Amino acid sequence: MSDYIFPPAPQPSVAVHGSEARYAVARIFCVGRNYAAHAREMGGNPDREPPFYFTKPASALVASGATIAYPPGTKNYHYEMELVIAIGAPVFKVTPEVARAAVWGYAAGLDMTRRDLQAEAKAAGRPWDTAKGFEQSAVITPLTRASRLGELKSGAITLAVNGTEKQRGDLADMIWSVPEIVANLSQYYHLQPGDLIYTGTPEGVGAVKPGDVISGEIAGLDRLSLTIADPE
Length: 232
Prior knowledge:
The chain is α+β, with helices and mostly antiparallel strands and 232 residues long. It has helices at 36-41, 96-101, 115-124, 129-132, 146-149, 178-185, and strands spanning 13-15, 22-24, 27-32, 52-56, 61-63, 67-69, 77-79, 81-87, 103-111, 113-114, 138-140, 144-145, 156-161, 164-170, 195-198, 206-208, 213-218, 224-229.
């Protein structure tokens, strides 16, 4: 006899490059405006102020290569190409030096955004949940172990829609580096294995529509792809 009224949802997880094992995901954190040029295009100030965060549910994960429906409630559905960090050791209130050792792996990801709902929330001073934390809004490639790559300090990050390049930047352009992000976030949370951090996007975000194919690349990581289907 089950102890649950309804069957528990499947454990969200991410594939691991070169392994049959998977990385079980507990939480998804996202860094806002971590590239100066993107901060400007969104009307923000790119000065080096403390980073800010929002979250997505782990159930929002969708694997690269998928075809997903255009989401409900929006007419301005945007891509944001991002480096994703996977935490591999418990950290709380640590320095960047300690945080560096807690990074288990990296992936390429998309922070899909209902931009019109985000704009409405900003104007009303409300949270971004409906704009950011919806179903299938966290696209991700298989993780590559940091032990194979070292710390990702630089490297091209690009995105194309239907073969036309829309975003191009470099990981060196991030206002906050990988160790700094992990260290800062650890001031507010007990970070644990299973935590993912989407680290922000370069300039060039824009809308997609049904039929569009998104492709993205970050140097050293698996290539990302996503196809947008008709609304349900």
